[in-house]
Design brief:
27 strands; phosphoglucomutase activity; metal-binding; 7-stranded antiparallel beta sheet; binds zinc ion; Alpha-D-Glucose-1,6-Bisphosphate, Chain A, domain 3; isomerase; binds 6-O-phosphono-alpha-D-glucopyranose; 32% helix; alpha/beta; A-D-PHexomutase_a/b/a-I/II/III
Length: 543
């Protein structure tokens, strides 16, 4: 087996977004594309020589081929060892856990998360650091800088490695350990949650539906929910991961998980419904006729955390991304703990978790997690809810009613305008940016603007500053609009409009969020001219 140095040239556009580099699969499969990026990861993180990595992905189209290329490159670059999930499969939280448990130098995860997969859909690669979390901004900048100057990459001339059976093998001088992707993760969940209480819940006839959306969590959910906790067979649906996610869009929200929503709002609905995304880090929670927004879910988990063995001693603090609703802030207030507001992207929670300042974190984009790993964790959130339901003996709807009665309700919705012309989207953001100074004090669509700014974050742990993280407009009475362009799309621009209003009148807790937010929605359009600038008269996705 010989090592080749292959001449290459920089490829445009290899800048990692909110969560790694995501492109259309044919782009990733193009000449040198994957190789250039992987070599840039190694070069941008001090080289692979003597290092140990974790490798796995969500099983999407090209996952298996990309894994073989990455292994050959790791060997050629002198890596000591790579721990690979069987068949190159690992959910993102399971990969994060393995990096931490084995004390590796980091890991490479092949996934485009909730984006569709297939020959003409999306593929992605992200690097996670030694703490198990997404590469922080400074690291992704170094990787990106490498992509712009790269002249060669290293490749081992070798056959494919058999990744179908757990065990140890080698590739050149590098050791490869193929591991069961579920086992370590399942052990961790058993340490965190009250499995006996959840087992008793199912033994008592509790029914749930977990939609794995043909993605990576199928095997994890089957093993844990049905295998260990005794949920009836068939509780987990769409459980076989498929390279194109069954032709679907593996994003757990009411739009893309529509069949689950219909079941949960229909006759004979189970007690509890949940779904996870392509790589297993997102979650959706829905009770019988009761959808729980991700922002509310974070607040409920924080308020009930001491029912879970791992958090029985209380939370050190909580954190949420800026566009996430303020529901958890109100819980943190009542618990007397800190609540941090970070930019969008899980990587911003890493320092807070490492420093022990936050225990629970969450985002409106269906992400919830804790200091057990350094990624958000879909199945963990589902088990957290099951633990709470088992201990409280109430339905999801009753838990929400109690929660709102105690803390008030942050009505919340996100409107997405997808594949908008990039120039039009940037023009809209620039136009709003231009109004920030003059908006406060003015009245828009009947609402008085109390403040407006562009969010910037000063990391309290390492002092780094991140600017340009979303435009915010606050209204009298607790309303808020946030505008942001997505950092994960692969086509044009996606405009996200985050809408929120706090309600404390106990007689007003059961409104349709779109009605409760009508004023705020009108104000957003009046300020940003969304309809006229995007040419769309309605959002593509409402969550
Ligand atoms: C990924 C990240 C999340 C982030 C989300 C935002 O899922 O892991 O932490 O919240 O992207 O995506 P957006 O498309 O809004 O940039
Ligand atoms: Zn994901």
């Amino acid at each position: 087996m010989s090592i080749h140095t292959v001449a290459t040239a920089p490829i445009e556009g290899q800048k990692p977004g909110t969560s790694g580099l995501r492109k259309k699969t044919p782009v990733f499969m193009g000449p040198h594309y994957l190789e250039n990026f992987v070599q840039s990861i190694f070069n941008g993180t001090g080289g692979a020589d003597g290092k140990t990595y974790v490798l796995g992905g969500d099983g999407r189209y090209f996952n298996d081929r990309a894994a073989q290329v990455i292994l050959r490159m790791a060997a050629a670059n002198g890596a000591k060892k790579v721990i690979v999930g069987q068949n190159a499969i690992l959910s993102t939280p399971a990969a994060s856990h393995l990096i931490r448990k084995r004390g590796t130098d980091g890991g490479i995860i092949m996934s485009a998360s909730h984006n569709p997969g297939g020959p003409n859909e999306d593929f992605g690669v992200k690097f996670n650091a030694a703490n198990g979390g997404p590469a922080p901004e400074g690291m992704t900048e170094k990787i990106f800088a490498e992509t712009k100057t790269l002249t060669a990459y290293k490749m081992l001339d070798a056959q494919d490695v058999d990744l179908s059976t757990p065990g140890t093998t080698s590739l050149g001088a590098m050791e490869i350990e193929v591991v069961d992707p579920v086992a370590d993760y399942q052990d961790l969940m058993a340490e965190i949650f009250d499995f006996d209480a959840i087992r008793a819940l199912f033994a008592g006839g509790f029914r749930m539906r977990f939609d794995a959306m043909h993605a990576v969590t199928g095997p994890y959910a089957r093993a844990i929910l049905e295998g260990t906790l005794g949920a009836p067979a068939g509780s987990v649906i769409n459980a076989a991961p498929s390279p194109d996610f069954g032709g679907g869009h593996p994003d757990p929200n009411p739009i893309w998980a529509k069949p689950l929503m219909e079941e949960m709002y229909g006759d004979n609905a189970p007690d509890f419904g949940a779904a996870s995304d392509g790589d297993g880090d997102r979650n959706m929670i829905v009770g019988k006729g009761a959808y729980v927004t991700p922002s509310d879910s974070l607040a409920v988990l924080a308020a009930n955390a001491t029912l879970v063995p791992a958090y029985a001693g209380g939370l050190r603090g909580v954190a949420r991304s800026m566009p996430t609703s303020g529901a958890v802030d109100r819980v943190a207030d009542s618990l007397g703990i800190a609540c941090y507001e970070t930019p969008t992207g899980w990587k911003f929670f890493g320092n807070l978790l490492d420093a022990g300042r936050a225990t629970l974190c969450g985002e409106e984009s269906a992400g919830t997690g804790s200091d057990h790993v350094r990624e958000k964790d879909g199945l963990w959130a589902v088990l957290f809810w099951l633990n709470v339901l088992a201990k409280r003996g109430q339905s999801v709807a009753d838990i929400m009613t109690d929660h709102w009665a105690r803390f008030g309700r942050n009505y919340y919705s996100r409107h997405d305008y997808e594949a908008v012309d990039s120039a039009a989207a940037n023009g809209l953001m620039d136009a709003v940016r231009g109004q920030l100074a003059t908006l406060p004090g003015s009245s828009v669509a009947g609402l008085t603007v109390t403040g407006a700014d562009e969010f910037a974050y000063d990391d309290p742990v390492d002092g780094s500053r991140s600017e340009g993280q979303g435009l915010r407009m606050m209204f009298e009475g607790g309303g808020r609009v946030v505008l942001r362009l997505s950092g994960t799309g692969t086509e044009g621009a996606t405009l996200r409009v985050y809408l929120e209003r706090l309600e404390t009148d106990s007689a007003q807790m059961d409104k349709d969020p779109q009605d409760a937010l009508a004023d705020v929605i009108a104000a957003a359009d009046a300020i940003a001219g969304i309809t006229s600038r995007t040419g769309r008269d309605a959002p593509d996705v409402i969550t």
